[in-house]
Amino acid sequence: MSKLITIIVGVLVFILGLNLENELIMIIGASIVSAGILFVFSAMAGYGKSHKEKEEIEKEIFDQFCEGMSRRSRYDMNKIIMNDQINKDIQNDIAEGINRSTRRK
């Protein structure tokens, strides 16, 4: 039951962020919702198992989630860096093309 309350609170915080148009509050709400969903998944995976096994399953699920999110953030960061580099290369190519065309006139 507490896991569902966590999800509901996260949704309400997210909606509050939407109404206030504040991205930070929306991110916090989404994080609470994702944590609640992970708790629900770990509860389903640990159903009928001992307390120690449940803790191991929960730890493994959260570790995999954190690893996936860190991979995603590294991918996004590298993508932004590459896009910036490509944009700089394109700007340099355009500037060189303009310089060449002005020399011919």
Percent strand = under 5%
Q: Helical region count?
A: 3
Mean pLDDT: 83
Cα-based radius of gyration, to the nearest Å: 24 Å
What is the distance, rounded to the nearest whole angstrom, between the alpha carbons of the first and last residues? 77 Å
What pattern of helices and strands is seen along the backbone?
Answer: HHH
Outline the biggest β-sheet.
none
Strand element count:
0
- The portion of residues assigned to helices is over 70%
Helix/sheet category: mainly alpha
Q: What characteristic shape results from the CA principal axes? A: elongated
Unreliable segments of 5+ consecutive residues: none
Plain-language structure description:
The chain has 105 residues and is mainly α. It contains 3 helices and no strands. The protein has helices spanning 2-20, 23-45, 51-104. Helix 2 (23-45) crosses helix 3. The longest helix has 54 residues, at 51-104. It is elongated. The chain starts with a helix and ends with a helix. The model has no long low-confidence stretch (mean pLDDT 83).
